[in-house]
Amino acid sequence: MIDTLTLRRPDDWHLHLRDGAMMQAVLPETARHFARAVIMPNLVPPVVKSADAAAYRDRIMAALPKGSDFEPLMTLYLTEDTDADDVAAAHASGLIKSVKLYPAGATTNSNSGVRNFDNVRAVLEKMAEIGLPLCLHGEVTTADVDIFDREAVFIDTVLDPIRRANPDLKVVMEHITTKDGVDYARSADSGLAATITTHHLVINRNHILVGGIKPHYYCLPVAKREEHRVALVEAAISGDKRFFLGTDSAPHLDHLKENACGCAGCFTATNTLSILAEVFERAGKLDNLEAFTSLNGPRHYGLPLNEGTITLRKGAAVEYPKHIATPDGPVTVFDPQMPLHWSVEA
Ligand SMILES: NC(=O)N[C@@H](CC(=O)O)C(=O)O
Ligand SMILES: [Zn+2]
Ligand SMILES: [Zn+2]
């Protein structure tokens, strides 16, 4: 029986750190285990210009625990006013590693996102030219499309046309939640990849709705039917280079989730690696965990693999905090509803 597992240090290709006191509280949870993370730009106001990204990066560096060598990978929030030259300069200087597209209204703080995709054409063309990846929140927002269908409709009506118009554009489908997303990511041999979150490997829509509404399992894109969860697990454990980890760990204060209009997001930074090891072990694919957490992401982004390793050890059920404290109240850590046996060695 395998009871230790050494992995190249992992990266998180989709992470929300927020700002201020919240960032101070959640940043150690990621920096403890991960070497790098792509830091989502959906702050209020959003991280739109290169100067915003530079300032945000400085605030993250200042908030890091002493001695941490965690590296935030910055991204710009694409708006219809984004200037292609500002993006290109931010890329050339090494400040940003991607640009993030939110359809307006699709998710938390996405109101400055894109309504008319024609208005971002010049930026996308520039990105294709300079090799800068586009990350997308892939859901349409039209009221007449059912929330459970929004990812599949986005792929057909927005993503596929963008890729046809820009065949050289490198794309990351963020936090895919459906078999449709898996199949589409598999349809291209290069230039297209998808991140998968920890929680979407564990929950389906029953976790949110059966036996009373469970706000801590509500996130966007919303978890789908079991057959979609199974497709996500198959993709993640396959070792296929087109799939890698983006936790989408998204902290919200408990009182804002346990609310008549609860915020979307699951906070998984604390126990993500233990959960992933459990999922991969149950599938008999622990051998492919490193590809998912540490190899496929940097290869898609064209970044070096991390030096150094982390070790996971199997033993008695892992203890982890149920909440992270912030000055404004607690943030609930995602409960995978199963015992976890793999802990990350300090
Ligand atoms: N995933 C979520 O449910 N929420 C994210 C936004 C996002 O990634 O769409 C957040 O910022 O809270
Ligand atoms: Zn999103
Ligand atoms: Zn997110």
TrEMBL record:
Cofactor binding notes: Binds 2 Zn(2+) ions per subunit.
Gene3D superfamilies: Metal-dependent hydrolases
Residue numbers binding substrate: 16-18, 42, 137, 220, 252, 264
Any one GO cellular component localisation term in the record: cytosol
GO biological process, one term: 'de novo' pyrimidine nucleobase biosynthetic process
Domain of life where this protein originates: Bacteria
Cofactor(s) in the UniProt record: Zn(2+)
UniProt: Zn(2+) 1 binding residues: 14, 16, 100, 248
Modified residues (N6-carboxylysine): 100
Pathway: Pyrimidine metabolism; UMP biosynthesis via de novo pathway; (S)-dihydroorotate from bicarbonate: step 3/3
Family from the record: Belongs to the metallo-dependent hydrolases superfamily. DHOase family. Class II DHOase subfamily.
Role description: Catalyzes the reversible cyclization of carbamoyl aspartate to dihydroorotate.
Annotated HAMAP family: PyrC_classII
Subunit structure: Homodimer.
Designated name of the protein: Dihydroorotase
Organism in which the protein naturally occurs: Pacificibacter marinus
Native organism taxonomy: Bacteria, Pseudomonadati, Pseudomonadota, Alphaproteobacteria, Rhodobacterales
